[in-house]
Amino acid sequence: MAVSQYIWHCGAGLPGDVLIADLRAYRYAPHFHDAWSIGAIARGRCDFTVHGQAHTAGEGDLVAIPPGRVHTGGTSAAPLAYRMAYIDPAWFQDHERALYAGGARLAGPVIADPALCGLWLAALTPDPIPLAERRERISAALFGLLAAHAQAQESAPAETADVCALLRERMASDPACAPDLEALALAQDRHRTTLVKQFARRYGLPPQAWLRNWRVARARALLRGGLPLADAAQAVGFADQAHLTRVFKQVYGSTPGVLRKAGSGGSQTL
């Protein structure tokens, strides 16, 4: 396994984080983000899954994955270079609503558009450019993506508030909680194993794995806000900062320290 990647926190003037990665023989475990993940493949091929379905993206392709969608990613022996933006959902929605008042649905998750991919690569360049200019580039690239590869969507039906939805809502509202799955299943007159399988089919991960990923996402937001690592780990329910660091690296491919240092200014190299 070989990883050489650069990650930085975009700061208050930008809509999220940017990751630039060069990978060889590296695979991300199933995980999700609380942001839109929009990536541009600069070189190589990425084989990945989204909610269990296999996809491949190559040089000149874009990858677009909505918040909360469980996915994998990575490459085999061949090198893979890509640039990824993790865009705040509210900022994404501002652009979406400007073009589609009732919301939109992107084609994808793989979008073959070399010219647009070039715009995203330029927006996510590692070169030092003013924050205002980088923000404008990302905004223009996002409008280009939505205009060319999205379509207006009809109103989605509201999710039924069954036990799986209620469990996810409970864990999302309190990442430090430790839900008693046995008692919850019993209250719904079902077996714990049945509840776990139903949750995994709907949300892509079993409840405990989903909660662990959500804790990492919440800890990431706290770290970006300047909270010390130990305090962030405690706030979201990890046993200690070593536990948070271990899971954080499994999900994001880098340690929390890299993100915190990047947030203080400048890019960081692994």
Describe the protein in words.
With 270 residues, the chain is α+β, with helices and mostly antiparallel strands. Helix content is 43%, strand content 27%. The protein has 10 helices and 13 strands. The protein has helices spanning 89-99, 114-123, 131-149, 163-173, 181-187, 192-203, 207-224, 229-236, 241-252, 256-263, and strands spanning 2-9, 16-24, 26-31, 36-43, 45-50, 53-58, 61-65, 71-75, 80-87, 104-106, 110-112, 150-152, 268-269. The strands form 4 sheets. The protein has a 7-stranded antiparallel beta sheet with strand order 11-7-4-9-2-1-13. Strands 3-8 form a two-stranded antiparallel sheet. Strands 5-6 form a two-stranded antiparallel sheet. A hairpin with a 2-residue loop joins strand 5 and strand 6 (53-58). Helix 4 runs parallel beside helix 7 (207-224) and helix 7 (207-224) packs antiparallel against helix 8. It starts with a strand and ends with a strand. The relative contact order is 0.15. The model is unreliable at 266-270 (pLDDT under 50).
